[in-house]
Amino acid sequence: MKSSLVMMLALAACGSKDKPPGNQPGSGSATARPAPGPTPEMLVTGPLPEGPEAGIAHAKCQLCHTEQYLVEQRLSPDAWKKTLAKMKKFGAPITDDEEARLATWLASLYTPELPIREAKLVERPALALPPSNPTL
Amino acid sequence: MSQSQFSRRTFLKGAGAMSFAMPFASRLLPNAYADGGALANPMIERTARPLNYETPLDVFTTRITPLERFYIRNHFDVPMLDATTWRLRIEGLVDKPLELGLADLEKLKHVTVEAVLQCAGNGRGLFVPRVAGVQWQRGAVGNARWSGPRLKDVLALAKPKAQAAHLELQGADRSVIEATPKFIRGIPFGKGMHEDTIVALRMNDVALPQAHGFPARLVVPGWVGDDWMKWLSRIAVLADEPKGFFYETAYRFPVTPGAPGAAVSADQMKVMQLLVVKSQIATPAPRSVVAPGRVTVKGVAFAGQQRVAKVDISVDSGTTWAAAKLVDTGGKYGFTMFEHVVDATPGKLRIVSRATDAGGGVQPVTPVWNPAGYLYNAIDGVDVEVRT
Predict the structure, then answer these.
(1) Rounded distance between C-alpha atoms, residue B212 and residue B119, angstroms
(2) Which candidate, B14, B80, B102, places its Cα nearest to that of B317?
(3) Which end of chain A is more exposed for a tag (fewer CB within 10 A), N or C?
(4) pTM, rounded to two decimals
């Protein structure tokens, strides 16, 4: 996960030759612009983009489910708000501030306009077959 | 599996006025199943935790879906139950509350029922506007042989009282967070007493896999998957309907479905029960390349607790239809297999299927949008490229 994130950020930084590679805080350059955000392709295929809200998601949302649940949604800001409220009601240990930040952040990334996530094929999970000693 | 990268968007421009192509489908990236070739049992991973895996379409060329490829849907982590200590408690409006072990269930007469299990949300990812939840597309469905005692024989041991009207069902799965509602569902007592409703101990003739409810799950043929309680651990006989989020709020469908995207008030939602008629083309594969000439289209259809009366195929956006041959059937609850040969000429080809059930129910052109994205059954198909 870490290495793919690093690679994604590197790719993002290399996305445009006329931009400085990344956003160096305090670099003081008059031409410095914020690092380009994640491209739609990165959002569709990748993990959550890096950021403080991703930290909240990893710490709190992943108590119950992988971030795959988040990145495959394509919701309006209102629907994201409702989803976060539902999760909080279900016991997600997020503060009101974290709830609002996550809703805003996710709504800015996983919009109805973003292409849908590609089907990812994996080998079936081990639990798809009966236990080896089922005592039946 | 051969792949092509032609643009669906370009292709769909040529579709007729009666288009079955969903707008978002044109935004699919190419090579849907590109990386599955090296896998022994490829599944589409929705979420690795909890386990939510979808069956790839090419699996639906057989009437019985193999365990290795059967879709898996969970709300929470799989409880790893010990068959020697597992108990099923029956309580509520019964003269004799009791706990049964696996040996008790093994002693009862067993029956086998072939039935389609489909997640209520199969096709959720195809609805426009989009709705929240696991974004299942087409593979949250499968057909298996389920074996075990009839639920009515199990209930009889506890002697239900005359006021029995509902059954509250609970499995052993739990959220890691205490505040999360427990997955509790309910079915009418009458459905529980139906001779085809069983407490399944086996799936396709072997012990239930853990992901499918080991050691026991309910099988409610013809009804949506959320009633097929896995890791069955408690049945309460009630006079009234069960309480709780997963019965009173979730798994409900609008009494009168309205415009896509429109909110529906809680009092206008009803409990979902029956599956609806649906068909699914298994081969040719979506976005595959086929040679010009005779192309055999194969797939499955099902209709809840009714027989599939016919499946029609169209290659001209629904202007004309031809009846497919129903080559095999798993009975009124199982998959009905269909086949049809189309004459493919070079170019883009969209093949769609439309099933009709014995009661006259037919797959709609337009999806029946609902707020939680349940029971998608609009006419659907595959896009292929025909070339040598």
Answers:
(1) 13
(2) B14
(3) N
(4) 0.87
**Which residues in chain B have Cβ-Cβ distances shorter than 8 Å to A136?**
83, 102, 106, 201-202, 207, 215
Q: Please indicate whether, in this complex, the C-beta atoms of B44 and A121 are within 8 angstroms of each other.
A: yes
**Which amino acid is it at B62?**
T
CATH code of the domain covering residue A111: 1.10.760.10
Task: Give the model confidence (pLDDT) of B84-135 as tens digits.
Answer: 999 999 999 999 999 999 999 999 999 999 999 999 999 999 999 999 999 9
Nearest CA among B261, B266, B304, B260 for reference residue B143: B304
d(CA B199, CA B111): 10
The SS3 of residue B322 is strand
ipTM of the complex as predicted: 0.88
What domains are defined for chain B?
8-49+275-386 (2.60.40.650), 69-271 (3.90.420.10)
- Burial of B270 by CB count in 10 Å (0-12 exposed, 13-18 middle, 19+ buried)? exposed
Residue among A91, A115, A128 whose CB faces B67 most closely: A128
Closest residue by Cα to residue B71 from A130, A128, A132, A117 = A128
Rg (CA), chain A: 19
